[in-house]
Design a protein that fits this description.
- This protein is an all-alpha fold.
- It contains 9 helices and no strands.
- Helix 1 runs parallel beside helix 5, helix 3 packs antiparallel against helix 4 and helix 4 packs antiparallel against helix 5.
- The longest helix has 32 residues.
């Protein structure tokens, strides 16, 4: 488990956070969840405003809770604010991230949907819709990879002190084979059955609570 973060954020940091989520909003083809890999890079890897656990928890809770899964963005903003030290900052973080992620995409979606409906019989419109499908799937797979591979980061370091990063990554995957097996089985169940996603989330929570993954 990562150590708790204690941040000091100034107005430039909040503006940077807002601007980045504005940009992500315009890239969120398939929903905000499709840009979560870039959110991870920005919040966890680059600025260290969130821990890996907080990032994963935000997505998992939003997927399990009723309502739109864009709520994971609000949870990320909340965690950033709490890491900055106060509930007021957490509420401000929710406002910053949600306004940022919702405003451009809402305007673009409304405008594009009206235009696309009027021109739905055009060959270019049909081709665009078909071409975007594999891109959205790839973005979602990148999110799944980031969340699952985070377990590899806590694998014990190699004797060379981590000089061979590829070997360390491979060791991390092998050390957490139950997690990867769960990912594969869950994907097959979703693909081949009609079992509701909430049952899989509940099963994953039980396995995690028991320390099996």
């Amino acid at each position: 488990m990562s150590a708790p973060l204690h941040l000091t954020l100034d107005w430039a940091d909040w503006l940077n956070l807002f601007g980045h989520f504005l940009t992500l909003s315009m890239m969120s083809v398939g929903g905000a969840i499709s840009t979560s890999s870039e959110m991870h890079r920005f919040l966890v890897d680059q600025h260290h405003w969130l821990t890996q656990e907080q990032f994963n928890q935000s997505i998992a809770l939003a997927q399990a809770a009723p309502g739109p899964n864009v709520l994971f963005v609000a949870l990320m903003g909340w965690h950033v604010g709490m890491n900055a030290g106060s509930t007021g900052a957490a509420l401000f973080g929710v406002l910053v991230t949600m306004v940022g992620i919702m405003t451009p995409s809402t305007i673009i979606t409304y405008t594009a949907a009206r235009w696309g409906h009027r021109n739905r019989d055009l060959r270019a419109v049909r081709a665009f819709k078909q071409g975007m499908a594999p891109i959205v799937i790839a973005l979602l797979l990148s999110t799944a990879w980031i969340m699952a591979s985070s377990a590899a980061a806590v694998a014990p370091p190699a004797a060379d002190g981590g000089a061979n990063a590829s070997a360390d990554a491979a060791r991390g995957v092998l050390a957490h084979w139950p997690l990867w097996l769960t990912v594969i089985v869950s994907g097959l169940v979703i693909w081949r059955t009609r079992i509701h996603l909430l049952w899989l989330l509940a099963a994953g929570a039980v396995l995690g609570a028991l320390g099996l993954i």
